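Structure first, sequence second, as always.
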């Protein structure tokens, strides 16, 4: 089940969304395939530390975050991938690695790759490895207010 925090937020904002249940899958590419959604619309959330602060880097499922590019677009001095141990407790009600890209609900910045911003919809893990939420990208952008740089920080390569 998607996290209560996320659903209450979406419902409170009167957002139209769809939940999609799928067989257990753990990589975003697998999830896109089993959910029959284009990988360009399925978002992968990667937890990063940007100058000592936890943040979310969100890219299409078939991309990987390129730390040098992320450092450039954020203007940070230091960027690194966070370990599960470092962020697991920040997302109560979420299975490890299945947190939704709603950093605004958890007090952190969200950086979204411009490739995702080009899509009309976005789908993402909603707290479990068996469910996605899909909604209009415009609604996601309005609610989360992510930073969307002009240049990409992701490269194809899962």
């Amino acid at each position: 089940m998607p996290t209560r925090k996320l659903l209450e937020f979406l419902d409170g904002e009167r957002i139209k969304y769809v939940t999609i249940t799928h067989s257990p899958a753990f990589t975003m590419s697998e999830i896109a395939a089993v959910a029959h959604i284009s990988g360009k619309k399925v978002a992968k959330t990667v937890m990063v530390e940007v100058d000592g602060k936890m943040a979310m880097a969100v890219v299409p499922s078939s991309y990987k975050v390129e730390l040098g590019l992320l450092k450039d677009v954020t203007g940070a001095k230091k960027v690194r991938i966070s370990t599960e141990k470092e962020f697991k407790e920040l997302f109560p009600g979420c299975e490890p690695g299945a947190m939704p890209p709603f950093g605004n609900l958890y007090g952190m910045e969200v950086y979204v790759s411009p490739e995702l911003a080009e899509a009309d919809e976005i789908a993402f893990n909603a707290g479990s490895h068996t469910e996605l939420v899909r909604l209009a990208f415009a609604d996601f952008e309005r609610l989360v207010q992510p930073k969307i740089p002009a240049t990409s920080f992701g490269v194809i390569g899962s």
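Margin note: DSSP finds six helices and nine strands in the chain.
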